[in-house]
Design a protein that fits this description.
The chain is of the alpha/beta class. 37% of the residues lie in helices and 21% in strands. The structure holds iron/sulfur cluster.
Length: 424
Amino acid sequence: MNKAESQRIASYLNSAGYHEVKSPREADLVVLNTCVVRQSAEGKVLGMLGQLKGLKREHADMHILVTGCFVDSHVEDLKKRFPHVDFFFKPGAYSDFLSWAKEQGVPVDEQRLLRSPFTAFRASARNDAGKDSSPCAYIPIIQGCNNFCSFCIVPYRRGREVSRPLDEVVCEAEELVRQGVKEITLLGQNVDSYGRDLPGRPDLADLLYRLSEIEGLSRIRFLTNHPKDVSRKLIEAVVSLDKVCKYLELPVQSGDDDILKAMKRGYTVEQYRELVRAVRERLPQASLSTDVIVGFPGETEEQFDKTFSLLKEIRFDVVHVAAYSPRSGTIAWRKYEDSVPQDVKKERLRKVEQLQASVAGEINSGYIGKEVEVLVEGNKKGKWYGRTESNKLVFFQDDADCSGKLVKVSIEKTSPWALQGKHA
Ligand code: SF4
């Protein structure tokens, strides 16, 4: 989501005559788009703001803008803490950004920023001519979240859910396909809520049916789902639409009901299991990924073991694991003490990572000798790379120019993180 927003701002600045430079040292204008979902991310923002302070001393006419989730409702406090920043604007507050740009005499093309197709962005992969050649693009379809999971800062910083009109998303996808895009990923903090705030209440499944009609579009992905909101209708849309990738992100967060309740996730472990059963019954070939938080306040060894066992039982293709870090302003921060010691959190994190490396290693080794279809995104160190429909990263060698193409690859070697093979 942040990348999509950065691209939108960059696109606007391009149209106003700015071009990208390699380092902030060379820039007249720096826009720092921040993420504070974890303490470590916030630490990076503070480090970067410190570096920019030094640069501004050397280049007094440099403008520094800060946006993203670091910018909360205490802008006056931020201004006092960081006087070297020229302007703070909240995520998505493009009209504030435009007002600032107007004041500074930057040429303003409001249509371009506020309503243009540049809300989408293409994954970055440059060909030899320096042209963006990636066949993959991302389209934000819904911003914000109404869920208020107790550990999460997103609803406070990004606000309530706002969906983009279905026709607008379809138009944008058509335009991207005209530009050569073959795969589109629909983005949202909770894509299952898509359309609830729109007239006629279209949903994500309706959007998938419409997008599938676009000629020239080969693949459609979407993320992230909320397990309590995944509907049968959505599962059936994924089953029946060939272009929709059989890959689902279903963040479980914990395998213990009391912890899930304290997290305010809105489902039990059994309901989650039931969802996975339903998906696997209709989509046996689907690959699944999940998110897990270890060391949530009060998480006992026994509760952690339940999470560990659930991961062993379900055998996800990918597990994103994070140690709980309190975010000020959230419900968990207000209600609970961050009681699990850091070394215990680290050990739980290590255990999950170790388990997942072994599970993913086994799942991936099942690909040896098989032929997979890869959408080639680029070339790294002489090897082409891209992803399968099931989101497996594949590397292969071929002398021909494969960029942007769908290529059949026979898999010869695997690791927990990637597959390797040759053009079949
Ligand atoms: S659903 Fe996701 S974005 Fe929304 S509050 Fe929960 S964790 Fe945060």
